[in-house]
Amino acid sequence: MLAIRTSSDPITAARVTADLHGLPTGRLIARDTAAHIFTADVYELRAWINALGGFVTRQRAGGAVTLWTLHTHTEPRSDGSTTAVLVHALSLADEDIHPDITEAVA
């Protein structure tokens, strides 16, 4: 992995990692020490999985909707530290989901 120099601010750190890999960011907010990225769909979530790895959780989000969340982290900074990144996407409960996502479910 490439060590990068960036802020420990979660939003800045997530944006730098997204830019480095050409990943979509959608809506981005910080909560505590983690960055939360709300993507447009599961295809954008898949791009994050393929670039950074991690594990996925899923839960019902009401009605026939499922919330998929990738738990990953930014590229390491020059001091070796990383920032937690949670990438979220919604799908219909009966929607076909790519195996890259379903196989990453913890």
Helix tally equals: 3
Q: Report the uncertain regions.
A: none
N to C succession of SSEs: HEEHEEEH
Which word captures the global form?
globular
Strand order within the widest beta sheet: 1-2-5-4-3
Average pLDDT, all residues: 90
The chain-level structural class is alpha+beta
Percent helix range: 25-40%
Oligomer category: single chain
Find the count of extended strands (DSSP E, 2+ residues). 5
Largest sheet features = 5 strands, mixed
Spatial gap, N to C terminus: 23 Å
3D architecture notes:
This protein is an alpha+beta fold and 106 residues long. 25% of the residues lie in helices and 32% in strands. It has three helices and five strands, in the order αββαβββα. It has a five-stranded mixed β-sheet. The chain is globular, with a radius of gyration of 14 Å. 23% of the residues are buried.
Summarize the structure.
The protein is α+β, with helices and mostly antiparallel strands and 106 residues long. It has helices spanning 10-21, 42-52, 99-102; strands spanning 27-31, 34-38, 55-60, 65-73, 84-92.
List keywords for this structure.
25% helix, alpha+beta, single chain
Protein topology:
Blueprint: H1 10-21, E1 27-31, E2 34-38, H2 42-52, E3 55-60, E4 65-73, E5 84-92, H3 99-102
